[in-house]
Write a structure and sequence with these properties.
Layout: H1 2-22, H2 25-49, E1 52-58, E2 67-76, E3 82-93, E4 99-108, E5 112-121, E6 127-138, E7 145-148, E8 154-159
Antiparallel strand pairs: 1-2, 2-5, 3-4, 3-6, 6-7, 6-8
Helix pairs in contact: 1-2
Length: about 160
Amino acid sequence: MRKSRVLWVLWLAFAFLFLAVTESAAGYLLLAVSAVLPLLAALAARRTAGRLRAELTLSPYGEKGAVTAGRLSVENKSLFPADRLLCQVCCENLLTGEVENTTLRMAAPGKMRAATEIEIKSRHSGRVRLTLRQLTLFDPFGLFRFRIRLGREISALTMF
């Protein structure tokens, strides 16, 4: 995100330099579009962030050392797509206390539901809880991020 912001500021500086050198309508248009378009995209992303819902499912039983399949699905009720979505998932063995955090990248088209498969493998037997810690949406230019409040803890349990 920092890199995107630096590049945007450099782009605005070059657009301003172009305007100063040419003093034409094209320079004004370039500067106006370069400044306003990312802000409009951020407003659309903020509206989309408020209309995302997530659901986490996991197979109730699995074998120790074998892969158990789960599914993270995100429903986008907005008209705008959620193209740059980060999902932080925590896998915790409640018996041994082992914790593993992973980040999933996904996209949810407008007015649709998108899903991605999650595969977990436990080295030890016990009860495993899979929790969706955080959902973060970035605007298309990567300048702004919006953390989505889940409202409740979204988790699923399985037994190994």
